[in-house]
Specification:
This protein is α/β, with parallel strands linked by helices and 442 residues long. It has 15 helices and 15 strands. It has an 8-stranded mixed sheet with strand order 4-11-10-9-8-5-6-7, sandwiched between helices. Helix 13 packs across helix 15. The chain is globular, with a radius of gyration of 23 Å.
């Protein structure tokens, strides 16, 4: 028997978004059967094709599954779904622009840093009970102060997601609502679902989350807000000084809300950080080394209010314990020796990213990418666009991995492109996005 949940929404994205929220909030339980497509279409007042597209989106996001002749049901364990599994199978000979990785050629060599860390280990090996590396913490504090981040306690975690997970576990409970960017970071959206939290989407423009959406989320009673400071994944947004002022004013009226800032753009984005840190009583800012120094270093520095940081460190002690001092000392060496030329690296990515956006604009295709490694391209149909682009030799990521209720799009990672690739890629993208011919023989 199908659930009597009222199907509503005027588009496939709106219908799918409403059902996903109902699943996350517990109104639709795992195993619940959804109405047949035609019945869902009648309830929502849309065509059967639109209802079918909504169900397809839900399947792509891992929220529902097809149960043969019995219809469509909520997956038994939707919280374990990984959005990263919504990926493109890339045939041989196709350029893969779907992964989101940095350019290996722009990462610093690690030989000297690892050798220095090994020498320090031989002189003073880290044992159980050892705290975080003093030099790394001192360098991190200096860099954060230079960027206007309030002075606060520091900790080291294994990359951004590890820090965010521990903070959310320390501050929130299943069923709490959290404001997140839409489109946003795939892994964060997965984490929110896995923790049993209810995602409240905030739309994003080039300057960050829209104030009207943050205001709406705060008024609805969210317990936490997550904002990407720069190089927002997937749109490339950077929180500008003007936008930061608007966001601070809204957050200041809700001092008990937890603010989480993600600054993974440090080291490969030359646009300044405009921190919101400190505007609420409970806050953290996480600065990752992944994109600028190497994903395999698995290291992030976290700063925040004393109580939240105590909880984070306590949870880390009873799980991972600590981050390898070999890695901490290697990162300290990279920072101390200025191993990454931020301006040169940022400029290299900007030429590829801005060049693709401009080339697409010349061909009548709007696209977004103010900073970072990705270009976000709105499309009418993700599956069709991905398929047509594959046929022309390029693989892009379907935007469904990053979206809650925002419109369809493709994410193209520009990190490994040469500037000479851009005209051909832009032409192929424009062709792939062009509506197919219609008519009797179309």
């Amino acid at each position: 028997m199908s659930e009597r949940y009222p199907i509503a929404g005027g588009t496939a994205s709106e219908i799918a978004g409403g059902i996903e929220v109902a699943v996350s909030s517990g109104r639709l339980r795992p195993g619940t059967m959804l109405p047949p497509v035609r019945e869902a279409a009648t309830q929502a007042g849309v065509s059967p094709g639109t209802a079918a597209a909504a169900y397809r989106l839900l399947r792509e996001r891992g929220i529902v599954e097809t149960a043969g002749r019995r219809g469509t049901r909520v997956r038994p364990r939707p919280a374990s779904t990984v959005r990263e599994e919504i990926r493109v199978e890339v045939p041989a000979g196709v350029r893969d622009l779907s992964r989101g990785n940095p350019d290996p050629a722009l990462l610093p060599p690690l030989h000297e840093a690892l050798a220095a860390a090994a020498r320090a280990h031989e002189e003073c090996p880290a044992m159980y009970g050892t705290g975080d590396d003093d030099e790394l913490l001192a360098l991190a504090a200096e860099r954060l102060r230079a960027d206007g981040v309030p002075e606060a306690p520091l900790a080291v975690t294994s990359a951004t997601l590890s820090a965010v997970e521990r903070v959310l576990l320390a501050r929130l409970r299943p069923g709490d609502s959290i404001a997140v960017e839409d489109p946003g970071w795939t892994s964060l959206l997965d984490l929110v679902t896995a923790l049993g939290l209810r995602a409240v989407p905030m739309r994003v423009d080039d300057d960050g989350p829209l104030p009207v959406d943050l205001d709406r989320a705060l008024r609805s009673g969210v317990r936490a807000v997550v904002i990407t400071a720069r190089a927002q994944n997937p749109t490339g947004a950077v929180v500008s000084a003007a936008r930061a002022g608007e966001l601070r004013a809204l957050l200041a009226a809700y001092p008990d809300v937890l603010l989480v800032e993600d600054d993974h753009g440090d080291g490969f984005v030359d646009l300044p950080l405009t921190p919101l840190a400190g505007v609420t009583e409970h806050w953290v800012l996480v600065r990752s080394t992944a994109k600028a120094y190497g994903p395999d270093l698995r290291l992030a520095v976290v700063t925040g209010d004393p109580i939240t940081m105590d909880r984070l460190r306590g949870r880390q002690r009873i799980s991972a314990g600590w981050v390898s001092h070999l890695l901490q000392r290697a990162v300290a060496h990279l920072w101390r020796t200025d191993a990454v030329d931020t301006r040169a690296v940022a400029s290299a990515y900007a030429r590829r990213r801005d060049g693709l956006v401009a080339a697409l604009a010349e061909r009548g295709v709007p696209a977004y990418g103010r900073s970072g490694l990705n270009v976000w391209i709105p499309v009418a149909d993700e599956a069709a666009a991905v398929t047509r682009l594959l046929a022309r030799g390029w693989a892009a990521a379907p935007g469904a991995r990053n979206r809650i209720a925002s419109p369809p799009a493709l994410r193209v990672t520009i990190s490994t492109l040469a500037e000479s690739d851009l005209p051909a890629l832009a032409t192929d993208l424009a062709t792939a996005l062009r509506p197919p011919p219609t008519g009797r023989y179309g």
